[in-house]
Amino acid sequence: MEINHNKQIVGLFKTLIEKKRLGHAYLFSGMESSGKGETAVAIAKLINCEELKESFCDRCPTCLKIEGRSHPDVITIDNEFGESIKIEQIRNILSQVKLRPYMAEKRVIIIENIENFTQESANALLKTLEEPSASSLLVLTTSDLEKCLDTVKSRCHIFLFYPLAHEKLVGLLKEGYDEKPEKLSFSSQYSQGCLGRAKVLLEGGFFEEKNKIIDKFISQGINTDQMKKMLEDKKKTKDFLNIIFSWLHDALLLKTGMGLDNIVHQDRLADLTSFQERYSYEELTGLKDHLITIHKMFNEKFNVSISMNILQSLLKV
Ligand SMILES: [Zn+2]
């Protein structure tokens, strides 16, 4: 589905290309799924599109090849899990910076999540940045600017990607998805303004899933065996903890009368209201603190099933 909120950045790149002022390395920084990778691909199209007008056409053979990640001059490496990319791979890709492109105007090398680079890889990248080439463009992305080497940052033009305001994101989602307003609203709030994440939530049936979890955990209570299943793998556990956290956060917002605008589970307002009425403010804060501790344990790779069973036993279902 083609909805992109970073039209402004793409527009800016078009101006840079027209004025022949395109730099050799850019670093896109922003939250996970905030559209950095998508924008990098859009820029590769912009540089190489065969029928460029206001923007790239997204129909010509070049645009289609880039979209399908099969263009020989547009190379993407996703470094999400750091160590899994070997230094030889990085060196091999970076060595292409100096070569003439096979068929494109300019070779575009996109490297995502450079914060996970090993020292060795970061040094290889730095060496490439120190010896720029006119035939290639490097687009790097990070969701943690602090972790990137200063020497790398100082050699790139940095663009910051901000989360979108709720109304704006709901508007964009409406263009692409024929879904109930409460589902769009939930996906926007839960993704914290990240278009990419909101799309994943909508396409993966997350809305229905989170409601099942809320029904079980908050309204019916989960027994030990069911809990084991909920915590079967990392992804399930993470989702489970995050859903319960957002629920308790919503309950506290309602309790303190902080207004309805920031409530994530708008679709369950009646349930949320009766839930928070069963607890005092201190009790709700206690539950939330308990969950924060569990989250920390999970991040430190501890088994959280006993703690989750305790949390369940504290709920008045
Ligand atoms: Zn095109």
TrEMBL record:
GO CC terms, sorted: DNA polymerase III complex
Transferase among keywords: yes
Keywords assigned: DNA replication, DNA-directed DNA polymerase, Nucleotidyltransferase, Transferase
Gene Ontology biological process terms, A to Z: DNA-templated DNA replication
Annotated protein name in UniProt: DNA polymerase III subunit delta'
Membrane-traversing stretches: none
Domain DNA polymerase III delta subunit C-terminal as annotated: residue spans: 226-315
Organism phylogeny: unclassified sequences, metagenomes, ecological metagenomes
Catalytic activity: DNA(n) + a 2'-deoxyribonucleoside 5'-triphosphate = DNA(n+1) + diphosphate
Top EC group: transferase
Single GO MF descriptor: DNA-directed DNA polymerase activity
InterPro entries tied to this protein: DNA_pol_III_delta_C, DNA_Rep/Repair_Clamp_Loader, P-loop_NTPase
Any Pfam family: DNApol3-delta_C
Organism per entry: hydrothermal vent metagenome
Documented EC number(s): 2.7.7.7
